[in-house]
Design brief:
One of its GO terms (molecular function) is steroid dehydrogenase activity, acting on the CH-CH group of donors. It is a single chain. The protein has 490 residues and is of the alpha+beta class. It has two domains: 242 residues, 3-Layer(bba) Sandwich (FAD/NAD(P)-binding domain); 139 residues, Succinate dehydrogenase/fumarate reductase flavoprotein, catalytic domain (Flavocytochrome C3, Chain A, domain 1), CATH 3.90.700. The protein has 16 helices and 20 strands. β8 and β9 form a beta hairpin. α2 packs parallel to α7.
């Protein structure tokens, strides 16, 4: 039965993972969801129009969108005690183009440019149709969120983008907590049933149609019937065995993923006949604090931070795509970097205060004292910052070729966070079309089965641009809810 919807106060990636420990997947699939009320959404127990597996951004968006299009018999399943999944920890923002907020701020952008840079960032291995659909519908998704009270009007830049299109909450904070809290509230307002600690095990397939889900809840097994099942289970970053199955070279890497991201959705969908694509395309993120597995927001680099090695020297254009920055870091002495920034960057990224409170930020009253604190040569670090500052103060060419987010360091307090690559995002997954239908190997829709979010593949290609995951989950989460509602109404 439904339990009270829970979003822990002051949730951090560290406390979430530590509190949950390891999740063991048995025989198929474990999933995500939550419960705003103990009220059954159907007249008959365990019979629904839509069962949504996963309570992250994609799953909750699908539930809200479907409900608003007239479907009331909906349940969201969540295997963890709390809702939100990896969306809780999304740090950069939501990329979107031609938005009302960009126009208000005089930012010239286009859907075509957004799509072009997304495809280029993924080295032209993404699905053109899916990417175009995402970009064309991104402004509408920003408006939709705004209508739910989730306003993302603080716009910054991420690596691989040529204009500011990464939308964050007004105060510049990480997008995840704001997004999850707002979606949870919308789910509660609609009295959509969410069942936490409800572990989906496998899809029920009758003939060639998915008709339900087998679940385990409070040590009891049951079957939930459904006219449609939406898979929104997220990625696999917390399942080291599955990671190394597809990418043996990533063995031993830390992960930014919460402990419920164990890849169960891939297993269950594949067993029902869905095709998995590009599963070896697992993204590592260049700025992960290794002791805590804390992702350091990309907006910090976009706001002017630089990366230096243990010798105090820059080694790459910090605004290049994640794969290139990660590779460059691994080539440095010790395989790590210091992300260095001033008080202006600290103040403009609310997430930094959280990192500081968690003890991840090193500080100095000035550049020389910071250099001593992080044990790099003060003269080398001074020369590095002076050369970087010259880009903005004299118009000199940046030695690393950086052209975006070049903001001169101001005198005063300086900060640094030690970072290295960590497993971050599964870019492959269930093959879908623009109706979010799960497809078989011969591109035939699997009746009754849909998918949205990180569990799907083809959108990001072999490199995901920072800020595109949130765009993905909201655009396609909203879309799948509306598509399924329209299908059921026929």
């Amino acid at each position: 039965m439904g339990e009270e919807l829970k979003v822990p106060a002051n949730l951090t990636r560290r406390t979430f993972v530590t509190g949950m420990g390891a999740i063991t997947v048995m025989g198929g699939l474990s999933l995500a969801g939550c419960s705003p009320s103990g009220k059954k959404a159907s007249d008959k127990a365990d019979e629904y129009d839509i069962v949504i597996i996963g309570s992250g951004g994609a799953g909750m968006s699908a539930a809200i969108a479907a409900f608003d299009k007239g479907v009331s018999k909906i349940v969201v399943l969540e295997k963890m005690p709390s809702t939100g999944g990896n969306t809780n920890f999304s740090s950069s923002g939501m990329n979107a183009s031609e938005t009302k907020f960009q126009k208000e701020q005089g930012i010239d952008d286009s859907n075509a440019l957004f799509a072009e840079e997304t495809l280029t960032g993924g080295h032209d291995t993404g699905d053109v149709e899916l990417v175009t659909f995402m970009c064309d519908n991104s402004a509408g998704a920003i408006d939709w969120l705004d209508g739910l009270g989730i306003t993302l009007n603080n716009i910054t830049m991420t690596g691989g983008m040529s204009v500011k299109r990464c939308h964050r909450p007004t105060d510049g904070s990480a997008v995840g907590k704001t997004l999850v809290a707002g979606l949870v509230e919308a789910v509660k307002d609609r009295k959509i049933e969410v069942r936490t600690n409800c572990d989906a095990k496998e899809l029920v397939v009758e003939g060639s149609t998915v008709t339900g889900v087998k679940v385990e809840e409070k040590s009891k097994q049951s079957t939930l019937s459904a006219k449609a099942v939406i898979m929104a289970t997220g990625g696999l970053g917390a399942n080291q065995d599955m990671v190394t199955k597809y990418r043996p070279d990533l063995k031993g890497y830390v992960t930014t993923n919460q402990s419920g991201a164990t890849g169960d959705g891939y297993t269950m969908a594949e067993a029902a006949g869905a095709e998995l694509v590009q599963m070896d395309q697992i993204q590592i993120h260049p700025t992960v604090e290794q002791e805590s597995s804390q992702l350091i927001a990309e907006g910090i680099r976009g706001g002017g931070a630089i990366l230096v090695n243990k010798e105090g020297k820059r080694f790459i254009d910090e605004m290049k795509t994640r794969d290139k920055v990660s590779a460059a870091e691994l080539e440095q002495p010790g395989g790590f970097a210091w992300e260095v920034f001033d008080q202006t960057v600290y103040d403009s990224n609310k997430a930094v205060a959280g990192y500081d409170k968690a003890g991840l930020v090193k500080k100095g009253d000035d550049l020389a004292s910071l250099a001593n604190t992080i044990e790099v040569d003060p003269a080398a670090l001074k020369a590095t910052v002076e050369a970087y500052n010259a880009v903005t103060t004299s118009g000199a060419a940046d030695e690393m070729g950086r052209t975006q987010g070049c903001i001169a360091f101001a005198d005063g307090a300086m900060y640094a966070i030690k970072v290295a690559p960590g497993i971050h995002h599964e870019m492959g997954g269930i093959k879908i079309n623009t109706k979010n239908e799960a497809l078989s190997a011969d591109d035939k829709p699997i009746a009754g089965l849909y998918a949205a979010g990180e569990v799907t593949g083809g959108i990001h290609g072999n490199n995901r641009i920072g800020g595109n995951a949130v765009c993905d989950i909201i655009v396609f989460g909203k879309n799948v809810g509306e598509v399924v509602a329209a299908t059921l109404s026929k």
